[in-house]
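Example (one chain per record):
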Amino acid sequence: MENHQENTWPLYEEMLLFEIVNEHGKKDWKLIASELAAKSFKKSSERTATNCKIKYDELFSNYYNPFIQQ
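Predicted structure:
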């Protein structure tokens, strides 16, 4: 089982994630993870499709829906 909280995401990766999701949409998380790995300094195994989806949802909730309580 993956530990989704084990790695922190630097700001540049969060920005890359938003850029890639904006370009490709939110349907193909494997593609998003692959492209993020290609553009990032992290090893590709550290940013799985599941990691990317969870992080995107977390960021979206925090930045675009500030009134949602977590």
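Caption: The chain has a mean pLDDT of 83.
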